[in-house]
Amino acid sequence: MTQVCVFLFYANARIHHHKVMLIDPRTGSHPAVRFDHHPPVKGEIYQLDHRSFRQDVIKEVVERTMKNIIVDNPKQDPRLLLEETLYHERLRMKKARSNWLTSPYIHQRNVNDKAFIRRVQSELKSISGTEDSKRLVKSYIHHFSTEICANFEPEVYNFATRAAPWAFSWLLNAASVNRILPWGMSESLQTRLRVVGHVDHLQKLSKKGTILLVPTHLSNIDSLLIGYVIHLMMLPPFAYGAGLNLFTNPLLSFCLSRLGAYTVDRQKNSTVYKTALKNYSTTLLKRGIHSIFFPAGGRVRSGAIESHLKLGLLGTALEAQLERLKENHPNPNIYIVPMVMNYHFVFEASSLIEDYLAASGKHRYMPADQPEDFFLANMIKFFWKLFSTRSELWVRVGQPMDVFGNFVDEEGRSMGPNGTTIDPKSWLTSNGELVAIPQRDREYTKMLGEKISQRYHAENVALSSHLVAFSFFQALRRQYPSLDLFRFLRLSDSQRIVQQERFYVEAERCYHMIRKAADQGQLHLSDALRCGDVKIWVEDGLRQLGLFHDAKVVKASSGVFTTEDMNLLYYYRNRLTGYGFGKLDEASQKHNFYGETDEKGFLV
Amino acid sequence: MKKDFWSESNIAVFGGGSFGTVLASLAAKNVGSVSVYMRNEDQARVMNSTRTNPNYSKDVILHERIRALSSFEKVFDLSPKMVIFALPSHATRDVARAAAKYFKGDEIVLHATKGIEEHSLKRISMVLSEELPIVRIGAISGPNLAGELARNEPAATVVASPFDDVIQVGEKVLTTDRFRVYTAHDLVGVEWGGTLKNIFAIASGILESSGFGWNTRSLLLSRGLAEMVRFGLAMGAKSETFLGLSGMGDLIATCSSSQSRNYRVGFQLAKGLPLEQILSELGQVAEGVRTTRIVYEFAMDRGVEMPITETVYRILKGEWSVDRGVKHLMTRPQVQDEWA
C-alpha cells in the first residue's frame, strides 16, 4: 500500500512539474544537483586567499565608508560621530561581558574591541582639530572593516567539501533504520535533501554575472546547509554574511572564517559599523564575488515566511551593479536569487517563538525560561534525528531577478511586461546620465524587497507537518473563537483536545485551500502533500512534525488529537501564514496577507 | 544633470483630448519638442495643418513645438524622454500595452487620468506599471478645468510619485508663469483623491437641483472630504494629501462647476429623470457613476464607513429618492471623528 502511494507521489510530481522542471524520479531533487563527489568549482572568491587582495578590499571599504559618512555629509561633525560610535560600543560592551562559556573567538574580539575603545577615548581627549577627528574616524572604520573582512582558504574549502558528504553519509547510515539493508541499498543524502526549483537557471547565470543569493532564515542550520547546497549545485563558493552566534563554536568558527563567511555583528549599532558592513558587501559584489546574506536580518522569530526585509544591505546590489555598469564591465549584472528552506523541525523553535511572543505580546505574554542555544551537540542531534526518522530538508531555489526585482531569462536579460526586455542601464539613467541618485535607488530597493518577500511566499514548499500543525490549530481555534492569541496559547492541557473527526474535517478543508492556492502558483506542495490522501499526509506529518522537541507538537491517541506545547504548535503552523489561510471567516478580497495578523492577534 | 537636457528633449503626450492638449501646450514652453499621439490619422493631419485642436478650443493656436503624430513608430523615433498619458481610464491599459515595446526604459511616465480600472480597482499608475517596462511613473492631478487653463488663468496642479526623479522632472516640464506645480510622494492619495471626488460631484448636483444653499453644500464638501480620507487611509494613502490641491482643491472645483459631467448627472437625477436617460442624453462617460458603485462595494467589504457614497449609490440605483437620501444622512446616529 505504502509503495503504491510512494509511486503516486512521484507520478504526481512529474505530472505537475513537467513544465517547470524535471524531477529526478529517484531523488526528487533537481537533476542538476550532484550528490556524488565532485571537485570544488573555483570562483572569484579565491582571490580572498591573497593577502594583497584582502588589503585592497579593506582599503576600498574604508575609502567608501569615509566618503559616505564624511565627504558626502559635509554637515556631519566627525567628533560627534566618534562620540556616537563610542557610546554605542560602550553600551554593547556592558551587555557583552565575557564568561567562561564565551568562545575564544568571541572573547578575543571583545578584548580587541575594548582595547580599541580605550585608545580612541584617550586620543579623543587630546585632539582638537577636525582633521584629527577625521583620522580617528578612519581608523575606527579600519578597525571594523578588518573585523568584518573574511578569509578564504582553498585548502579548508577542499577539505570541507570532501568531509561533508562523508560525515553526512556516515551519520545517515549509522542512524538509519534501514542499515540492515543489503549493501548497495544504503541510504544517501539525496533522499533526504531536496534541492528543487530554478537550479539550472542559477547555474547558467553564475557564469553571466554575479549572484546574490537571499535565503529565508529559520535556523542556524541554514548557513551550513546552504554552503553545502551551493557545492552540490556545482557553483563556486559564495561569500556570506553570518551572524556572530555561529562563531561561538570553535570548530565552526575556524571553518567559517576560512570559507568566506564574514561576520555580521548585530549588536553593533553605530552608523560607522553599519556603513562599513554595507560597503564590504558592495565591494565584494562589485568585484564579482557571488554573495549570500539573509535579507531579513536574523532568524525569523514567528516561524512564518519573512515579510519585512532589511533594505540597507539589499541596496548594495544596486550600488554594485551601477558601478559595474559605469566601469563598462563585460558582465555587469547582479542577479538576485531568493531561496526558501523548509524543515519539519527547527531545533531553536521554542526560543524563537518565545522571542516573537514576548516582543509582540509585551505584558500579555508570560515568558518561560528555557533558553536554547546552538551547540555542536545540537547540530549532530539534528542530523541524527533527520536521518533516523526519514525526515526531509527542502531547499527551493527561486526564480532569479535583477536588482529591481524583474525576472531575468536564461540569458540574463531582465524581462518587462508584454514581452519587453529591460536594459538595467536605462533604469539607472536620470536626466540623460548614468548616475546614483540615493532617493531613486532607495525606491528601487524597496521594490526589490517587496518582490523578494512575494517570491518567498510563492516559492515556499508546504510540508505535511506544517499542514498537520495548521489544521490542528485551526480546529482548536474553532472551539474557542472568542479567545485572542495570548489567551488561546494559555489553554490548559484538558482544553487542548480536538476530536479525531473534527480534526479530519478541518484537515480536508485546509488541504483544499492550500491545494487551490498551489494550483494558482501561490506556493508549492511537498511530495507527501501532492499525494492528496488525507490519511497518508496526516500520518506523515504527525511522524515528522517537530520531532526534535521533547514535547509532542501534535499527538494522536485514542480518537483525539492534542498538543503538549501550544507555542511550538503556533510556530510550526505559522509557516503557512501570509496567505490568508488562517482567517476563521470567509476571506476578503485582499491579495496580500504577508505578515498580517487578524483582530485577535493571530498571524493569518 | 546636463544644463539643457530637458529644454532640448522631446516629450510625448498620449491622447489628443482637451486635457492632453493643455498639458502639451504647457510642456511646449519648457522642452525641445512635444508630440501629441492621436490614433486618428485625419485628426492629426488637421491639427498639424490648422494648428488648432477642435477637441480643445478652436481659438487657441497651438505652440509651434507641438506636432500631432498617429503612430507609435513616429512618436518613439524622436526618443521621447517623458511620456504623458492623458486618456480615459478604460483606454489606458490597451494603449500602454500596444506601446510597451517601443519604450527604452529611461523614460519618465506621467498620467493625468482621474479614475480607476473598473474590475480590478487598480489605480492608473498600477495599470501602467503592469503594462510598461517602466516604474518611474507619476500622476498629475488637481483642480484643472481645461477651459480655464486654455484661457491662461492662474492655476496649479500636483505631480505625485514615489520617485523624486519623476516629480522633479514633472515640475520642470509643466511649470509656467501662470501654472504652478506642487509635488507629493503620496501617489496613492493623489490618485484616489482625483477619483473619489467624482462621487461628491454627483451629490453636489443633486443638492443644487434640490435648491439647497451654501450651508448644505459646505456640509457635503466637508463630510465628503472625511469619506475621502477614510477610504484613502484604507487604501494606504496619507490623510494630509487630501487637504491639498489634488484632494480638497479638486473636490471644490468639481462640485462647484456646472460644467462637470458628474455634477450634471446629479442635477438631472434630482429632477426625477431615470439614470439611463440621463447618461444617454449626456453622450459621454461620467466616471463618477462607475466610481460610486466600485467604491461603495469595496467600502462595504472593508468596513469603511461612507454614508454619502452609500446614499449616492442608492439614489443612482433608483432604490432611494433624494428626500429619503437626505433624511438618511441627516438622521444618522451621531458620530465622533477628528474630521468633524
List the main descriptive attributes of the protein structure presented here.
heterodimer; A: 604 residues; alpha/beta; Glycerol-3-phosphate (1)-acyltransferase; 4 domains; seven-stranded mixed beta sheet; three-stranded antiparallel beta sheet; 21 helices; 49% helix; 10% strand; B: 340 residues; Rossmann fold; N-(1-d-carboxylethyl)-l-norvaline Dehydrogenase, domain 2; eight-stranded mixed beta sheet; 16 helices; 8 strands
Give your account of this protein's structure.
The complex is a heterodimer of chains A (about 600) and B (about 350). Chain A is α/β, with parallel strands linked by helices. Chain A has helices at about 1-15, 50-70, 80-95, 105-125, 130-150, 155-175, 200-205, 220-230, 250-255, 270-285, 310-325, 350-360, 375-390, 425, 440-460, 465-480, 485-490, 500-520, 525-530, 535-545, 565-575, and strands at about 195, 210-215, 240-245, 260-265, 290, 335-345, 395, 415, 420, 430, 435, 460, 495-500, 525, 555, 560. Chain A folds into four domains: about 1-30, no CATH class; about 45-150, no CATH class; about 155-460, Glycerol-3-phosphate (1)-acyltransferase; about 460-575, Arc Repressor Mutant, subunit A. In chain A, strand 15 and strand 16 (about 560) form a beta hairpin. The two termini of chain A are about 35 Å apart. The relative contact order of chain A is 0.11. Chain B is α/β, with parallel strands linked by helices. Chain B folds into two domains: about 5-185, Rossmann fold; about 190-330, N-(1-d-carboxylethyl)-l-norvaline Dehydrogenase, domain 2 (Orthogonal Bundle), CATH 1.10.1040.10. Chain B is built from 16 helices and eight strands. Chain B has an eight-stranded mixed β-sheet, sandwiched between helices. Chain B is globular, with a radius of gyration of 20 Å. Classes of the chains: A alpha/beta (about 600), B alpha/beta (about 350). The interface between A and B is medium-sized, with 26 and 28 residues.
